[in-house]
Write a structure and sequence with these properties.
The complex is a heterodimer of chains A (267) and B (469).
Chain A: E1 8-17, E2 20-30, E3 35-39, H1 46-54, E4 60-68, E5 71-72, H2 78-83, E6 86-89, H3 101-113, H4 119-132, H5 150-164, E7 168-172, H6 180-196, E8 201-205, H7 209-214, E9 219-224, E10 227-232, H8 235-243, H9 246-266
Parallel strand pairs in A: 3-8, 3-9, 6-7, 7-8
Antiparallel strand pairs in A: 1-2, 1-4, 4-5, 9-10
Chain B: H1 3-12, E1 25-26, H2 33-42, H3 47-62, H4 71-74, E2 86-87, H5 101-109, H6 112-119, E3 122-127, E4 130-136, H7 138-142, E5 146-149, H8 150-156, H9 158-164, H10 175-183, E6 188-192, E7 202-207, E8 214-215, E9 218-223, E10 228-236, E11 244-246, E12 249-254, E13 259-266, E14 272-275, E15 277-282, E16 287-294, E17 299-302, E18 305-308, E19 314-323, E20 328-337, E21 343-352, E22 357-366, E23 373-383, E24 389-398, E25 403-413, H11 416-423, H12 429-445, H13 450-464
Classes of the chains: A alpha/beta (267), B alpha/beta (469).
The complex binds adenosine-5'-triphosphate and magnesium ion (MG).
Magnesium ion (MG) binds at residues 46-47, 91, 172-173 of chain A.
Chain lengths: 267, 469
């Protein structure tokens, strides 16, 4: 594919939920093989962006655009987007009572690929991925996310990603709730997948620079109040860790005010 | 019903085909004492059974329709328009090749002979009023197991039948039990000798073919001390624009230490009224399990009951119901603890969609002095849309304080967040809904033999197709 078409391109994205505007013009570009980190205070709209990317029906896109491999995603439902290569590791994965992990994975894989996966190939891949994520065999007969600990849920999201092998993975706080060892295992999982699929892009949503020690980002972005207000290299995460969001928020408010004031004058 | 509705039903319901009607004897429409006497005479029954029938008809006529049911639908039953007895073939076969071609084809299409070869210990196939095919594995016969149709049992084992028939469900128990007692025909008689464990299932298959037919089979299972049997029944009927009636009576007796499991996959077409009385008695240390799946019918009324009369007896009712457009599944369970140290569980799962309606009615009773009773009741209802409805009427009469009773009930809608999660993994909305439905029924499905679990999931899928969007 032409080098000029980015993997994921988000342009001036405005998203509202229940008539409240949460994202107010987000621009972001992820190229093949790149890792981008998205940070920002609670409630700034990070999960909203991840849901909007995946196509949650209640997150209304009022303007702007999302393109994956140059293709407009806005008219596609979540199922179609996943078939195009989008994957979201949920901040809060849902329980599906009575549906076993193995059945869920097999069905998902078949749906994403559009054809049945030979059972032996599936079993082999599943066994390898689970071993790498240090998950026990009994796990496959448990019901999806039912009674999972916080850490198990996150590991299971990574397992799904490893099985589905998406073009771009949006990971919403996959590191939160993980102990140090689990963080290591999960990060290794992501890195291994990047090695075998060097074209895969990653958008890491996180509060902690710790994760970025394991998965090195090409860029770090800071989302405040629905807008990306700063972008930089991995050293930006270190700066945030040391100084917090205060100064960035103040700067952002100042620039918001600068925009808002003249508009109010014209009313 | 409009022509297009008819078409749709035909597509969804795979068993909706019918055969040209052929019969060697058919009673006239409607019911009176003469019809009852004719049936008895035709069957050449002993006097006591004829009198039992006539008396039962009296009870039926005297009893009003139960007022607490869905009478808007129930009152549609036109008892005068129904054929109460239809015999399609002169004699019962023990070889499928001896079954008349039309009927054999029907059962072929339903996969019965195939299933019999693969995983059943015995089969009876009832077509309209009579059992047309019957077989049991020879080794079981040698062990003394009796598995035959009720009419044959009345001729060949009159003492056993007379001892137990109608003792668990007396004819005056309710209006539909009275009706069945008056005009019953077919059904199974099962007798398992002490200590014999029949490890693979016995299967009965019930098929209504004729329009406006009434099917009134009568089943009696006696498990002698220490024995085990798993009995499975399945039911289908053609799709007609006018109604048929199915009203069965099933009595189970589990003697000391015996274990009976009774599994039903009810998939009548949507023009069948299904009004069934099922009751079991569990003696000391005996176990009875009703595993009851209701997918079909226009209206089902059925509350499988277990009387735990001996110390240490255990009862379980596990049921699922699916109600779609123009369907009402009024199902539930009754468990009576009449002895100490008895335990029970009731698990009821229902799904309503496209305006369908499910009702759970349950009774849990513990008599005074029945100490150390344990019981757990759980009913979950899942609504797939805003048109559908679910009601729960759990009744508890606990007259003893030293007991351990748990009760949980929930009504939920298929969650938007669950759907989104599954769709983000590539499943279409329809597939995602199906997965949630299958998961919801999983506690039931996992209790079925594998072949039946596969079949049930396939039936569910057929029912669900086209219902989303
Ligand atoms: N379904 C919803 N209904 C109403 N408000 C919502 C909904 N989802 C998000 N919001 C609001 O949108 C804003 C952004 O929420 P979002 O979850 O995107 O933040 P976040 O950056 O992911 O925060 P955190 O770091 O705590 O995960 C918040 O004010 C939140 O209350
Ligand atoms: Mg969030």
């Amino acid at each position: 594919m032409a080098e000029s078409i980015p993997l994921l391109k988000i342009e001036d994205l405005h998203v509202q939920i229940e008539d409240k505007e949460i994202l107010r013009g987000v621009n972001l570009e992820v190229k093949r093989g790149e890792v981008h980190a998205l940070m920002g205070p609670n409630g700034s709209g990070k999960s909203t962006l991840s849901y909007a990317l995946m196509g949650h029906p209640r997150y209304e896109i009022t303007s702007g655009n999302i393109r994956l491999n140059g293709e407009d995603l806005l008219d596609m439902g979540p199922d179609e987007r996943s078939r195009k290569g989008m994957f979201l590791a949920f901040q809060y994965p849902m329980a599906i009572p009575g549906v076993s992990v193995v059945n869920f994975l097999r069905t998902a894989l078949k749906s994403v690929r559009g054809q049945d996966v030979p059972i032996r190939e599936f079993r082999k891949d599943l066994r390898e991925q689970m071993a790498a994520l240090q998950m026990s065999d009994q796990f496959i007969s448990r019901y999806v996310n039912e009674g999972f600990s916080g850490g198990e849920k996150k590991r299971f999201e990574i397992l799904q990603m490893a099985m589905l092998k998406p073009g771009i993975a949006v990971m919403d706080e996959t590191d939160s709730g993980l102990d140090i060892d689990a963080l290591r295992v999960v990060s290794d999982g992501v890195n291994r997948l990047r090695e075998t699929n060097p074209e895969m892009g990653v958008l890491l949503i996180t509060h902690y620079q710790r994760l970025l020690n394991y998965i090195t980002p090409d860029q770090v972005h800071v989302l405040v109040n629905g807008r990306i207000v700063r972008s930089g290299g991995k050293e930006l995460a270190l700066e945030l860790e040391a100084e917090g969001y205060d100064q960035i928020i103040r700067d952002a408010q100042a620039s918001d005010a600068a925009v808002v004031l003249p508009q109010e004058v014209t009313v | 019903m409009s022509a297009t509705d008819d078409l749709k039903v035909e597509q969804d319901y795979k068993y909706g085909f019918s055969d040209p009607e052929q019969f060697v004897f058919k009673s006239r429409r409607g019911l009176d004492e003469q019809v009852v006497r004719d049936i008895s005479k035709m069957k050449d029954e002993p006097d006591w059974m004829r009198e039992f029938r006539v008396k039962s008809l009296g009870y039926f006529n005297k009893r009003p329709m139960p007022a607490w049911l869905n009478n808007q639908v129930l009152n549609d039953i036109d008892f005068e328009n129904i054929f109460y007895y239809l015999r399609s073939t002169e004699k019962q076969a023990t070889d499928w090749n001896d079954v008349p071609d039309d009927i054999k084809n029907t059962f072929d299409r339903l996969g019965i002979p195939d299933a019999e070869r693969k995983f059943l210990a015995g089969v009876t196939a009832q077509y309209e009023s009579e059992v047309v095919y019957h077989s049991i594995r020879e080794d079981l016969t040698k062990l003394g197991v009796i598995f035959t149709d009720m009419d044959t049992a009345l001729r060949e084992y009159p003492d056993k039948v007379k001892e137990y028939f109608g003792t668990i469900i007396p004819p005056n128990d309710n209006k539909f039990a009275a009706l069945n007692s008056a005009v019953w025909s077919g059904g199974s008689f099962v007798w398992i000798p002490a200590g014999v464990k029949v490890e693979i299932p016995l299967q009965a298959y019930f098929r209504i073919n004729a329009e406006n037919m009434g099917q009134f089979e009568r089943t009696l299972i006696i498990a002698e001390p220490g024995s085990f049997v798993h009995y499975i029944e399945g039911c289908t009927a053609p799709v007609y624009s006018s109604d048929s009636l199915h009203s069965a009576v099933v009595e189970l007796i589990a003697l000391e230490g015996a274990h009976i499991r009774y599994t039903t996959i009810q998939n009548w077409s949507k023009n069948v009224f299904n009004l069934v009385t099922k009751r079991a008695v569990a003696h000391k240390n005996a176990t009875v399990e009703w595993v009851d799946g209701n997918l079909g019918s226009k209206l089902t009324v059925k509350y499988p009951a277990i009387y735990l009369v001996g110390e240490g007896a255990r009862g379980e009712v596990l049921s699922v119901a699916l109600a779609g457009k123009d369907q009402h599944q009024d199902a539930g369970a009754k468990i009576i603890h009449a002895a100490p140290n008895t335990s029970s569980t009731i698990t009821s799962k229902s799904i309503s969609k496209d305006g369908g309606r499910t009702t759970y009615r349950g009774l849990l009773k513990v008599y005074e002095g029945c100490e150390n009773v344990k019981s757990n009741v759980r009913c979950d209802a899942l609504l797939l849309d805003d048109l559908s409805r679910s009601d729960t009427y759990p009744t508890m009469e606990i007259d003893e304080s030293n007991v351990d009773i748990g009760h949980e009930a929930s009504v939920s809608k298929v969650g938007e967040e669950q759907l989104f999660y599954l769709m983000s993994r590539g499943l279409t909305e329809e597939e995602a809904t199906m997965m949630i439905v299958n998961g919801f029924f999983e506690p039931f499905t996992k209790e079925l033999p594998m072949e039946y679990a596969v079949e049930l999931n396939r039936l569910l899928q057929l029912e669900m197709e086209g219902s989303v969007g």
